[in-house]
Amino acid sequence: xxxxxxxxxxxxxxxxxxxxxxxFSEQMPDAAxxxxxxxxxxxxxEFVAELRERTGVDARFRRDGxxxxxxDGARLAELAAHAETFRANGGEVAVLDRGEALAREPxxxxxxxxxxxxxxxxxxxxxxxGRALLAGCESLGVRIERxxxxxxxxxxxxxxxxxxxxGFASAPVVVNAAGAWAGSLPxxxxxxxxxxxxxxxxxLAIAIPRTAMxxxxxxxxxxxxxxxxxxxxxxxxxxxxxxxxRVTAAGMHDxxxxxLAVAPSLATFAVVETWAGLRPGSHDGRPYLGATALDGYLVxxxxxxxxxxxxxxxxxxxxxLVAGGPADRLAPFAPxxxxxxxxxxxxxxxx
Length: 351
Ligand code: GLY
Hints:
The strands form 5 sheets. An 8-stranded mixed sheet has the order 4-5-3-13-14-15-12-16, with helices on both faces. Strands 8-9-10 form a 3-stranded antiparallel sheet, with no helix packed on it. The protein has about 350 residues and is of the alpha+beta class. It is built from 8 helices and 18 strands. It folds into 2 domains: about 1-60 and about 120-195 and about 280-335, FAD/NAD(P)-binding domain (3-Layer(bba) Sandwich), CATH 3.50.50; about 65-120 and about 195-280, D-Amino Acid Oxidase, subunit A, domain 2 (D-Amino Acid Oxidase, Chain A, domain 2, 2-Layer Sandwich). It is about 25% helix and about 25% strand. It has helices spanning about 15, 30-55, 75-80, 85-90, 100-105, 125-140, 250-260, 310-320, and strands at about 1-5, 20, 65-70, 95, 115-120, 120-125, 145, 150-155, 160-165, 165-170, 175, 195-205, 215-220, 220-225, 230-235, 270-280, 290, 295-300.
């Protein structure tokens, strides 16, 4: 088995993300997506443990929950009103008053009103996860090749393999997992093409005392993710202007504005990194998983905001398919499913 990458492997969205494993806090488009995300979260601890045993690289899975912060009473009432929806989706939630929220996360604004705590959400260090997966693949004999000019070759019925700048590699099965670039891989007939589009996200990191914050912290559409090494990630913008992954002044302003509103004491700490990545957006918010109109050509892409969360469930489902397993389980994610971009639905009720 060979993994072909036209750039450094595990260095695109897998590297740029925040590693939040938060199926209840993210807005899910529908029940099928929520179920797949919950399944993936459930198998995450064993996925990370197996990688650690095989490679020695610990991707640092941590289940410290998510705190949605309310800075005023109106927002706290709104969070409280949606607690039941979180519970119905499987979230273990509690509404916290100011004292309880600050007891949990003392770095937050002293005058906040309270919050909604989701105990069963987690995080993983996605950069470590990428390194662990590469090492794990290599330990199993998978070749990782960095190539230029990657294109799929097929006849009128089935895939034949991959062409690169270095020649042709025959393959009975090709899986397109090219992230935001999955829709533009050359050589694929229109009937088997998926509509993936890039959705940029800018982020920054602030150095804080280690363990000063434990939970994922959400303020509206922005979030803080505390890492074990003392980096506090602040994310993320959501921008649609093609393959543009620049860090901009407006993007940084937006993130710092949110971070300082929720935790004013961050103002004195150093910003140690800024970066941006491209999420792979699909037409309806669900990933494209499984077989296509072209025999032997499978896709695993379009995970949008939940690629790290869905990694183990995606890997398992695609491995089962390649091994000849049934496809019915993946029907909601069929690459050829119809539909157009839906109106945004709000699965957890929060705006
Ligand atoms: N999963 C969070 C984001 O994509 O910003």
